[in-house]
Amino acid sequence: xxxxxxxxxxxxxxxxxxxxxxxxxxxxxxxxxxxxxxxxxxxxxxxxxxxxxxxxxxxxxxxxxxxxxxxxxxxxxxxxxxxxxxxxxxxxxxxxxxxxxxxxxxxxxxxxxxxxxxxxxxxxxxxxxxxxxxxxxxxxxxxxxxxxxxxxxxxxxxxxxxxxxxxxxxxxxxxxxxxxxxxxxxxxxxxxxxxxxxxxxxxxxxxxxxxxxxxxxxxxxxxxxxxxxxxxxxxxxxxxxxxxxxxxxxxxxxxxxxxxxxxxxxxxxxxxxxxxxxxxxxxxxxxxxxxxxxxxxxxxxxxxxxxxxxxxxxxxxxxxxxxxxxxxxxxxxxxxxxxxxxxxxxxxxxxxxxxxxxxxxxxxxxxxxxx
Length: 371
Ligand SMILES: *[C@@H]1O[C@H](CO)[C@@H](O)[C@H](O)[C@H]1NC(C)=O
Ligand SMILES: *[C@@H]1O[C@H](CO)[C@@H](O)[C@H](O)[C@H]1NC(C)=O
What we know:
- Keywords: Membrane, Transmembrane, Transmembrane helix.
- By secondary structure, this protein is of the alpha/beta class.
- Helix content is 33%, strand content 16%.
- The protein has 3 domains: 1-48; 53-182, no CATH class; 195-371, no CATH class.
- The protein is built from 10 helices and 14 strands.
- The chain has a 6-stranded mixed sheet with strand order 10-8-11-9-13-14. It has a 4-stranded parallel sheet with strand order 5-4-3-6, with helices on one face. Strands 1-2 form a two-stranded antiparallel ribbon.
- Helix 1 (4-16) packs across helix 2 (18-44) and helix 4 runs parallel beside helix 5 (132-140).
- The longest helix is centred in the N-terminal third of the chain and has 27 residues, at 18-44.
- The model is unreliable at 1-18, 35-68 and 332-338 (pLDDT under 50).
- One 2-acetamido-2-deoxy-beta-D-glucopyranose (NAG) binds at residues 228, 230-231, 356.
């Protein structure tokens, strides 16, 4: 009875203009569907990218989450709120480096915490292919401390996509994340240090994140950075991207700002008076600034007076080491630091976890202040 009148109207409608109305409806509906399809397709450009990829490169996706990234076409689920640590390994075509990195992750003491390993593999910018060996090794790797996922970007995303799209935490997410390029190795003690560092400094509003390695000395102030060793950690104005663990809130703010600022083609993230800006400008001259996403973070940190926390250990030992391999940053002729500087059983000291309450701050020029 409830639907009676409506059916009646339909009947009347159909009775008056029988074939014509039905045909019109079908035509309009088809057009709407087609237009919608074209719009969605052009926005994300997924299907057309996939068309260029040979069948053997059509690799399945293990994540079926909710966040779809325009850069990569990848869906990643960050809804998992029960993790203590999320390790993100970004890689492209250095399978042996990646394996060395992954093996070092298996040797870490995670103090029984809930850990997840997310591996992200980029595609070639030219052929759009996935490096099969990298993919096979990532899939075959057995992570001994928690769940592992292997995520293949749907298109080439470069270092920007690898860094900026692989950790987008929700506001109530309490996990610590660390992003590792594949030519990194970590100390078995890195998580202990990272957890302590977050616990000491996460409440500060001027912390952009935490770095496992030391400040890159070439980039540092002319005289290097010298901080008294009774300070087990210090804050420096420029992030360390060798094992970077972002502060959740500052990272969210940075990503929102970047998404908007980077749409302005006449804006450049220059910070006057530092070498990074000169490097970035020289990259721009060869259209290769795409390898230096960090310049945007440096600029963001500059305008908001943010600092990155670094370990300050005897003999410059560290919790993550970069092996300076050929890739997007280096052409391979940078002399590798052969010396293993990772904190190990023989030089680990639990006092490393006691960090100064009043952190020491180091500016671009190596000048120290306390605040
Ligand atoms: C480090 O040593 C200096 C000089 O001995 C002292 O003034 C400072 O308070 C010490 N800082 C810490 C965090 O122990
Ligand atoms: C884009 O950047 C330029 C250079 O920094 C600036 O002058 C301009 O106001 C910006 N435009 C918008 C819409 O923000």
